[in-house]
């Protein structure tokens, strides 16, 4: 699966302790040891805001990425078959 970073999201928050914990909680998966970007062996993972590399789906999602890939813009990142979790807290941790 290909995704693109969403820039300017560092001020967004959720009720989870971090966006990485948000991803873990709502994906039902364990946090990977390495960055899921193809051929990346970095281990400093964060919960990154991304969009699918698609012209139709403009929703924001959370996926674990290393800090380097989280800072990259302007190109698609191949992450394989990782679960994307909605960054819309109204549908996840902010839901009443």
Query: Quick one: overall form?
Result: globular
SSE topology string: EHEEHEE
What are the segments in which pLDDT stays under 50 over at least 5 consecutive residues? none
Beta-sheet strand percentage? Answer: 15-25%
Could you tell me how far the N terminus lies from the C terminus, measured between alpha carbons in angstroms? Answer: 31 Å
**What is the percent of helical residues?**
10-25%
Written account of the structure:
14% of the residues lie in helices and 23% in strands. With 96 residues, the protein is an alpha+beta fold. It has one domain. A hairpin with an 8-residue loop joins β2 and β3 (61-66). It is globular and about 40 Å long. The model has no long low-confidence stretch (mean pLDDT 91).
Summarize the structure.
The chain is an alpha+beta fold and 96 residues long.
Identify the notable features of this structure and list them briefly:
single chain, 96 residues, alpha+beta, 5-stranded antiparallel β-sheet, globular
Write the layout of secondary structure elements.
Elements: E1 2-5, H1 19-27, E2 45-52, E3 61-66, H2 67-70, E4 77-78, E5 85-86
Antiparallel strand pairs: 1-2, 1-4, 2-3, 3-5
